[in-house]
Amino acid sequence: xxxxxxxxEDTLRMSLADDLREAGYDVLDxxxxxxxxxxxxxxxxxGAIITDWKMPEMDGMSFLRQAKxxxxxxxxxxxxxxGTVHTAVEAVKQxxxxxxxxxxxxxxxxxxxxxxxxxxxxxxxxRRLSARLEERTRFHRLLGTSQAMVRVFEQIAxxxxxxxxxxxxxxxxxxxxxxxxxxxxxxxRKDKPLVRVSCAALSKEILExxxxxxxxxxxxxxxxxxxxxxxKAQGGTIYLDDVDDIPMDIQVKLLRVLQERTMERVGSTTxxxxxxxxxxxxxxxxxxxxxxxxxxxxxxxxxNVVPIHLPxxxxxxxxxxxxxxxxxxxxxxxxxxxLTPAALEALISYxxxxxxxxxxxxxxxxxxxxxxxxIDSTDLPEEILCPPDTxxxxxxxxxxxxxxxxxxxxxxxxxxxxxxxxxxxxxxxxLKTPPSTLRSxxxxxxxx
Length: 448
Hints:
By secondary structure, the protein is an alpha/beta fold. The protein is 48% helix and 13% strand. It has three domains: 122 residues, Rossmann fold (3-Layer(aba) Sandwich), CATH 3.40.50.2300; 163 residues, 3-Layer(aba) Sandwich (Rossmann fold), CATH 3.40.50.300; 133 residues, Helicase, Ruva Protein, domain 3, CATH 1.10.8. Helix 10 packs across helix 12. The protein is elongated, with a radius of gyration of 28 Å.
């Protein structure tokens, strides 16, 4: 990995260069910023820059800004003896990965550089996998590299080629409709209609007619024949969203459709053969509802042939950087909007009760309100930085007490870092703990 080291203090620069080379890095050291910037622009291939803040000819802020323009992906670590919280926040806002105050231990610099490179590797992996997934039309608009989402993709790949009925289970905002679309577009039925029905949005009277159609004169107001959604989906797929909201008497008719693959319009006794693949979704535990008598048990088993469980976003936090950047690109137009590490830490620590939909809405808002292309934690709304965990904490019953305490500690540290723009010294002050203790806790908890 090629590293540029920029510092006008010769003794320190040469000593750090030796230490970095000994650690295995390919180091080029410069006494001033302009030649380093020229090398970055002409040669490229630089993984990280370690730069002083106060230098002749060009100061660290100007160098940082121009370096990020030349290579937006290059990691920059700022070192200085003239640090303030304001300076640290400005450096991070301009794209610096981290900020170290002189004097510092070489081990601290090496650890910071190692974390920075891991961060970059993660972002690059996410980009590659995102591009790969977008190319694979069978996954449609679904994104994610977490193990939980990989399992979902595997299920989609297996079930898409069949005609089996699928039940998608997941909280509101997790992307159940996207899974239904992915299954349809990866199936042999992809050239036929995908018909969507929001069962929760329609009243009982309208829902029956919408699903099965009706004959002229079947009821007051039926002035002409109506083709239902099942008939419109012939040869293709029908997606029943919020299937748990279907009334009991209509559940009987739906059960008959699944069993016999025929239907009758309201007001008719003539059976209509159906060639339709059924995909349903629910945000509740249908098995529990069936046990309570609030959903037909026989219909549940007919729908639950292939269940696909979509994890909530709080259980696949490693996907948040990928998703957030995707939504910024989607809503940012021609702007190259990016998130600082501190902003990503804040997003990862938030529990996301609204799941992926809530994340997309936030990224859309930030793309409209942010005046800078680099979005920092200070640009995030207060509810993201300080979520009411006591009401949303879902780990109870799933993890041990020690694991729960560790998770709470991670969230508190991430919130403190988000509030201070990633400055660990200031975060330690907020948490009323020595900086060495904070660094030790972060090491133990695997926080970068």
